[in-house]
């Protein structure tokens, strides 16, 4: 990565002249205090040999409400706390969130915006971070506390409450929210913010709304408040009575399964997971957030689970008598809308009790590593039924063979003509292009068809090699998220795989990646519309409508023929369009050798997906419709609902 990102060729910080007074205080504006405090926070390096900044930097789009206050403060600390300019507020928050996810929540970033649309553009990203339990510090500007200029430009006025601003929209999507109406509040608000951001049970977005007049107001702060501090990430240890309850369930189990969620990665419990599974002969299946917790070729790795799961993982999950859910929210894609674990007693190991109690589980509220170590030490001599373990290993081997065949298929033809590749073909080509370095690649994705195909087919060789945001499944996360991953791991190849729909929704951070020298490889799969939802629409009995370009209302010019390669080149990237999988493999080699962001576009089949695996997912179908297809889909829906009701009795 271009080192200019980290070192700005400017004079020394003028803030160096700010010295404590005789009474041990230092006079700073509220904005200066925020920035100085963030710059002072440290965290241990991964190898434990030193420390590094807790905050990797601040993404900022300046406007009225933050340019004069926070902008000036960030300039003063531009060496210790780099400021990065972005092109879209939501996108820059996605980048900050991806940075934290790539660091397994041990490091993070802040973002700042003006008031009004700059602030509200962050709300979607805040929701994404909240759902995925990922840390990001949001610093939106706010209206004047003085109310002297009222209403100020871009102010959202509430007709019944004069204290409400647009920033109140952050409250339901923040784990901690505070509006700083006096500089002294920061003495309490900032430590609370850091605790939430670094606490495994509380972790999520923190919003500190900063009225622009307060940002500029000075206060005498205790100088010791800004002394460098090594932050320890907090995670709870298991308590004995919860361990006892879990052990009772496990010891009586013959057919146990482990569901590995994101908490395994965030808790750095991957080695503990492998040791526990191996010692007790328990098969493992992975959620979207947990994929890469266990190497793809581990003998006990059944692959993906749930709606996008492998055949063996879902078969065994349906028959398991105990499911050890480690660090997962057990959302509906994982549980097949609560139909998958038909016979299982669920043990929820989670730092967050809210998540650990899902699916009526027996809870062990604890850090994943501490819990697995504690359970393992008390289960000496106990193993799953030998036939169950052997069956799991057979399923795992069979699935690896299927994945290889699907991702190494020959070019298909129909009546002598080549037909378009589908996602599995593209995934195979991308992985083959990095045969020697595939374990170092980080694949990034979020929405559409690709997350399902990647969950099944991507071979993740090391923790963090798989970076798919599927808690919120937010279209537009992909490229911005890739930028955040690259800033976190500049030494690794970051490959963004994105559909044309998500690309069109948010692509401007290609320009940011070029500007920062943070090279990405972006692979665009162009199926000319929202192919995933088009298939779901028809699966629910609906007619193809308003998803694919061909099925939308169009004016005289018709649907656009979009040249994604030309568009990326216009933002400074290198780019090309390829005609088939063979050309894609060659283009991937050029992309790997490039010195800047490189986009490759390939046309793909909008209808075909991987048939193997999968499970039912509840999508409500209209009870009354004039369409026969909808009525048939409703009958199928009711059959599944009735079956779930019987299983839950």
Task: Provide structural commentary.
The protein is of the alpha/beta class. It has three domains: 3-18 and 25-230, Thiamin diphosphate (ThDP)-binding fold, Pyr/PP domains (Rossmann fold), CATH 3.40.50.970; 240-400, TPP-binding domain (Rossmann fold, 3-Layer(aba) Sandwich); 409-603, Rossmann fold. The protein contains 24 helices and 25 strands. The strands form six sheets. The protein has a six-stranded parallel sheet with strand order 5-4-6-7-9-8, with helices on both faces. Helix 13 links the parallel strand 16 (345-350) and strand 17. Helix 1 (30-40) packs across helix 2, helix 3 packs parallel to helix 5 and helix 10 (270-280) runs parallel beside helix 14 (368-378). The radius of gyration is 26 Å and the shape is globular. It starts with 24 loop residues before the first strand and ends with a helix. Mean pLDDT is 94; it is low at 1-14.
